[in-house]
Amino acid sequence: MLEAKLPGAQLFAVADGMGGHAAGELAAHLALKAFAGVVQHQRGRLQQRMIYAAESANQAVYQRATGELSGMGTTLLAAVVSQGALYLAHVGDSRAYLLRGESLFRLTDDHSWVADQLRAGALTPEQACTHHWRNVVSNALGGEERVRLELLSVPLEAGDRLLLCTDGLYGPVGDHKLLTVLGLPRTPEQTAQTLIDLANQAGGPDNISAVIVDILDPGGPPSRPLPRRQEGPVYADQLLRQVQQGSPLSYMLLGTVYMLLLMMALLPMYRLYTALLGLSLLGLLLLYMRYWQAKQEPVLRPEARITLGQPGQDSWSGRGPLNT
Question: Which parts of the sequence belong to the PPM-type phosphatase domain (predicted)?
């Protein structure tokens, strides 16, 4: 697990290594260290830094996966809370949950063989829950030279509670127990310990990592449009092009400003009328941009909503209230 401060933000991450105990532990350590190093020290937009960080983490594992360490890999789920939004970089089958009010939303989809078959319609949810390949991941750091990942984002509200965890927790505990425990009036530390106890009581079949973060004040609305949620992991270079691509409305706004300045310079006798017309057009464009961005922002998916009525090696972290 990882927790680190960034300028105006905070980073949290979990990783679940594979390839044997020693190799898995090394893979997780390498990935977390490399990811944090890039996000903390590289400049640029947060989304771009998270993509570069995932590439760096993948290379750190991929280059060491030789000889006795051949075949090692790790999942990675990194969360950055910044300027009113939660940004997630996701590789593998670790999960992020968001408790909002009395509902628990699963933010991530598993990158596993069973989850792939479920999305393709080849398995039913009941079959997926009991399938003997349900723990086989289809995407992990270190598996190939290029990394595939999802970059997700969700606007935050005061009172939200975030859970990042590995399959060692959500597997034996289950979504409805997660909802019940996360909704109890307990501190993040107490809640994390309760969840770990439940996982161990259910057999503790795997390593258990959990990070719980309470959001008191999300820090205001996001300063930039959030990236649209894509379906499934994509290669980092493709995702980077999506993030870097500017909105067509932004180009329209810049073009309008340029034309207005040009008209004011060429027709000085009509500056007042040009300025009034320009302000009206800019106001309309800004209103439409806000509407367009609101449609682009990924909302919490209704199908991911969980409501009531519907011995492993443990590592855990309980975080206090977060005020960014």
Answer: 1-215
User: From its phi and psi, is residue 81 left (phi > 0), alpha (psi between -120 and 50) or beta?
Assistant: beta
pLDDT for residue 109 is more than 60: yes
Residue 59: predicted pLDDT: 98
Distance of alpha carbon 73 from alpha carbon 212, whole angstroms: 24
pLDDT on residue 311: 44
Q: Where are the domains of the chain?
A: 2-229+298-323, 248-294
**What's domain 2-229+298-323's architecture?**
4-Layer Sandwich (3.60)
